Amino acid sequence: MRENDVELFNRAQAQDEHALELLYDRYEKLLFSFSFRMTKNKFLAEEVVQDVFTKIWSKQRNFDESKGKFSSWLLTVTRNATIDMLRKKKTTYEIDERDALHDLSPTTEEQVEWKERSEEVRTAVQQLTIEQQEIIEMFYFKGLSQSKIAEACNLPLGTVKGRVRLALKHLRGILSPTNERGFQDDV
Hints:
Rna Polymerase Sigma Factor, Chain: A, globular, 2 domains, 0% strand, mainly alpha, Arc Repressor Mutant, subunit A, 8 helices
């Protein structure tokens, strides 16, 4: 039986090497591709992935199951680590709309899974209001901070924060009715 991510995370926090290896095997490609899309730099993306798993191993991280899925939390940690890395390197970046996985040679199954998931997310984002779509694009895909978005859109910071929060709530509602296997969750 496959152990769930939260159990593995808790074991990794308790310095269980095998649990950390299992988490790494499950998420390394996803985190690398996510970071690579932001950095467009293989070496920086690899450094970010290493940093994320080092943080899981060496520091106590807080994950609250009631606030969402482990994979979403891990992607948020990766996004923040990528932005921190780019700020340290003083690199400017823009996210390319094309899939940045072309040189990773993923398996056919991974390609299909990635395409299905990205289509689900793209479709879900299109169901948001135009304002929320713009905020999500700037925040998650261009890596802008909420204060930079407020400046760029000439909006109060509180409005930007509210739109991000509301957009995420709507996305969660749109995406959560089906689980990872495509079955309806009992909510």
